[in-house]
Design brief:
The protein has four helices and ten strands. With 138 residues, the chain is an alpha+beta fold. A six-stranded antiparallel beta sheet has the order 1-6-7-8-5-4, covered by helices on one side. It starts with a strand and ends with a helix.
């Protein structure tokens, strides 16, 4: 399923867009979009949605649904949540990928595996982090 829209909460610093991971409490998701532009959202599964630019070719972000469940079950023991603490989103994607890894070895899952690898690469290359103060407030 593909849907298109502008990013929900662009971060503006000095009049310019600054790519930032944001936790949305109402929908329990984390979203990262590195460009302030028209985006195409392509849902991979219940956890991961990839975000592409208008060409539908260049990956510019991702959305992680049900983030609090993954955080509470797997990541919370690793972090002290305070204003200067952050959660590396590579670890969140790796955790979700590992949890469903045993179901990833069918031919039908090839696209899903590629999608998780693409999100991991983007999170790693852009050093995407979610500040603990966002989750502390949730």
């Amino acid at each position: 399923m593909t849907q298109a829209h502008q990013s929900e909460a662009p971060e503006v610093v000095g009049g310019r867009y600054a790519p930032t991971a944001v936790y949305f409490m109402d929908s329990d998701c984390v979203e990262y979009v590195k460009e302030d532009a028209f985006c195409i959202y392509e849902r991979v599964d219940d956890f991961l949605t990839l975000i592409f630019d208008e060409t539908e070719y260049n990956l510019v972000g991702f959305k992680l649904k049900g983030f609090m469940c993954v955080f509470e079950q797997h990541l919370k023991p690793l972090y002290e949540l305070h204003d200067k603490q952050f959660i590396d989103l590579v670890s969140a994607i790796e955790t979700a990928f590992s949890a469903i890894g045993h179901r990833m070895f069918s031919v039908e899952s090839e696209n899903r595996v590629r999608a998780y690898k693409a999100a991991l690469k983007l999170a790693h290359n852009d050093n995407v982090k979610l500040w603990g103060v966002q989750l502390k407030a949730a």
